[in-house]
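Peroxisomal membrane protein 11B, pasting as requested.
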Amino acid sequence: MNDTADKLVIFLAKRDGIDKLVKTFQYVSKLVHWHVENTKPDVAQRAKQWEVASGLGRKAFRSGRFLTGFNALRRNPGSTPTFRLLSLFANSGEMVYFFFDHFLWLARIGVLDARLARRMSFISAFGESVGYVFFVISDLIMIRHGLEKQRKLLQCEEAPKDSGSMEKAADSESAVRKIREDRVMRLMATAANIADLIIALADIAPNPFCNHTVTLGISGLVSAWAGWYRNWPV
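Structure tokens follow.
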């Protein structure tokens, strides 16, 4: 119990940890509002206020977040030309998303002209979508490379062993475990990015599927909980 409490404290001390918690509030309240809108209008109104407050709070808390993409490009441009290109598009899209999200937040709280909100939302969502597409491609390529490497390591483990190869077998087992852990994290990232891509598409090209409350609510929770898993201290 104490260990769980300590991990929760560490999780909530992170910017991303707080963001995932508030994102959970935001999309749970969206689903509650949809569910009780016709039967309990007073509860629905409170849920809507909670959703709006959570969304605006997240935008304020993400101030300056666009610098993360720039820092990622500067520190880790990619090991190959392909990954450098993927990293460029992915992080550039994320930078556009977070940068214009500032103006969207200011428009929605009344500091800027409210008529700018729709335009800022479109630009922000477009950059977000570009970033997510290339992040997903990068993660899928890395998952494939990991599977290939794991297959080779497992083949080595199955080969006849002598006393001199026991140490190599132990190293191989450790490497396979790390590959599996990395794959789980990348799958979580992929799930979160695809879910957020659906939410972004609801802004870019409104349609009955992406803009349905249930679709948005489930997508938001998938993104929040996948991010929760990735940021939870081990």
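Note for the archive: Residues 116-158 form the longest helix (43 residues).
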